[in-house]
Design a protein that fits this description.
68% of the residues lie in helices and 0% in strands. The chain is mainly α.
């Protein structure tokens, strides 16, 4: 039985000492390896190589691997949330915004990114049962995503693009189940016909 990941928070950088690397670039490297291999299967050597840092530099900025993972998780959800919000913003009404979000998930579930996987889904599967810190982070992020979708559906109610009988909260929960499922299917390298899948999903808003 695997041991639970140690719980820790990212270590604050000591004041007065300039950082010798770009944190976002380093964390993007950590995200790639964590998405591909998961938390437990990622060694410190693989992590430092992906971050293009010496082990000493990593430990100056973070306490341990778990702290790197927390920082990588936060970086990942910030970037993906911004991508999703930009996709939604291109829609002219609530219905179009929901469609754009679904299309964005399909896009990110294919190709190299799709095969790499999603750190939120990976954390839910690998760590939520054994790591209370990550369980809280995953739960909070899924709730945030769900609330965002529910808000778009309510915008559709207000602008007339989505019928009032479509329940915003229940439908948003189902959409989140679908979007996270897309990431699992993409990780498994199964083909995704985005246009057809989104078309079927949009029937939920009819």
């Amino acid at each position: 039985m695997q041991k639970a990941a140690r719980k820790s928070e990212p270590s604050a950088h000591l004041p007065g000492r300039p950082r010798e690397f770009d944190m976002d670039t380093a964390l993007d490297g950590a995200i790639r390896v964590f998405c591909e291999r998961g938390y437990h299967a990622t060694s410190i050597g693989e992590l430092t190589a992906a971050m293009r840092l010496a082990t000493g530099s990593v430990y100056k900025a973070f306490r341990d691997k778990h702290a790197v993972f927390l920082a990588a998780f936060e970086r990942y959800v910030a970037v993906r949330s911004e991508q999703t919000r930009r996709a939604a913003a291109r829609g002219a009404n609530g219905r179009e915004r929901v469609r754009n979000v679904l299309e964005s998930y399909v896009e990110h579930s294919q190709g190299a990114e799709g095969r790499r996987g999603c750190i939120v889904v990976g954390s839910a599967v690998e760590l939520s049962a054994v790591d209370p810190v990550m369980r809280a982070r995953v739960t909070a992020q899924l709730k945030t995503n769900e609330s965002f979708i529910a808000g778009l559906i309510r915008e559709g109610h207000a602008d007339g693009s989505i019928p009032d009988q479509v329940d915003a909260d229940d439908t948003a929960r189902l959409v989140i189940c679908m979007t996270q499922g897309l990431r699992v299917v993409g990780k498994a390298r199964l083909p995704l016909d985005g246009e057809r899948l989104v078309g079927v999903a949009m029937k939920l808003l009819a």
